[in-house]
Amino acid sequence: MSQIRVLVVDDSAVARRIVQESLQGDPQIDVVGTAANGRIALTMVKDLAPDVVTMDMEMPVMDGIETVRAMRRRGDRCRIIMFTTVSARDAKRTFAALAAGANDFVTKPSSMFVSGASAAGVAESLLPKIKALMPFDTGGPISLAGAVAAGGRSTDVIRLAARPQGPRRPVRAVVIGASMGGSEALLRVLGSITRLPVPVVLVQHMGAVFTRQFAEWLDRLCESIVLEATGGQVLQPGHVYVAPGGHHLELRATAGGVRTVLQEGPLVNSCRPSVDTLFRSAVGVYGGDLLAVVLTGMGSDGLAGAGVVIAAGGTVLAQDEASSLVWGMPGAVAKAGLAHEVLSLDKIGGAIAAEVRRSTRDSASAAGGP
């Protein structure tokens, strides 16, 4: 039986031991080695050819970001999961690591920093991500080339949603949902389009400290104005609103315009913020005058919400399997027949812009404009 080969990189001997113990308890995982800094890790990656590397951020000799850059420069294709602490400084550095080529990140549980720390919390955070990145196949060896979609190649026939008959609905807002791999995906999508004449509201499954830094990171790199959502904001065209970690983001129509509403209700699909919560709320405000997009991510958050958008007459786009780091969320939508188009990541930004332009043009024509 093949196993997922993992290399653990951390300058702390205690952290290395805890991570190793947390992973070795799973029969699908083989911890092939540990390294105390990035320079050692580079040699071990070359010699051991791991499928996945867990990478500490702060290390002597060569830190995590430098190591990721070096690995990608020389063509190492193994998956890299950054292992970081919950702090504003590390959040900024985490996005630098993602920009350098890391695939995702997890935060170190607080239990790691107390005496007698257990491996249970680490296993809970790391194992699902490792298995999503490198799907376990009991019928043959793990192949990175065969795991490009990080979920295997689906044999399901995708049935696209039918377009409603009659005139196409205008697009008054764009809502987007993403999870694992979403940082890079959202950067590529938002970075490929100019400011839209409608607001964009998005959920990226991420912790509270990280969503604020994520919004600032996108704001620096994209033409749109990107900010973390706070309660009571009036949605503005050309602005992108990121749901804050730990809060569901909803929309509410008021006399002064459509406003953001934050609430800390129960988890939805084990998530808070939840894509389904945002999509349902947006339909309550915009009806079918809505474009919903589901990008790479684990699980099926966004599936029920996409169904609500379709039922209201709105439009749904989903990322395709080949370009998704994990084809869980968009795959669930696509396989349920709830996507009007299933597109590669490099085409989604253009499709969003085209839908909004068409909507603006059709509205102007209906009003007797040029």
Give me some keywords for this one:
2 domains, 370 residues, seven-stranded parallel beta sheet, five-stranded parallel beta sheet, alpha/beta, Rossmann fold
Question: Could you characterize the architecture of this molecule?
Answer:
The chain is an alpha/beta fold. It folds into 2 domains: 4-147, 3-Layer(aba) Sandwich (Rossmann fold); 173-366, Rossmann fold (3-Layer(aba) Sandwich). Helices cover 36% and strands 20% of the residues. The chain has 11 helices and 14 strands. It has helices at 13-24, 38-48, 64-73, 88-100, 120-133, 182-191, 208-221, 275-286, 303-312, 329-335, 345-366; strands spanning 4-9, 29-35, 52-56, 79-84, 104-107, 173-178, 200-204, 225-228, 239-242, 248-254, 257-263, 290-294, 315-319, 341-343. The chain has a 7-stranded parallel beta sheet with strand order 8-9-7-6-12-13-14, sandwiched between helices. Strand 4 (79-84), helix 4 (88-100) and strand 5 (104-107) form a beta-alpha-beta unit. The termini are far apart.
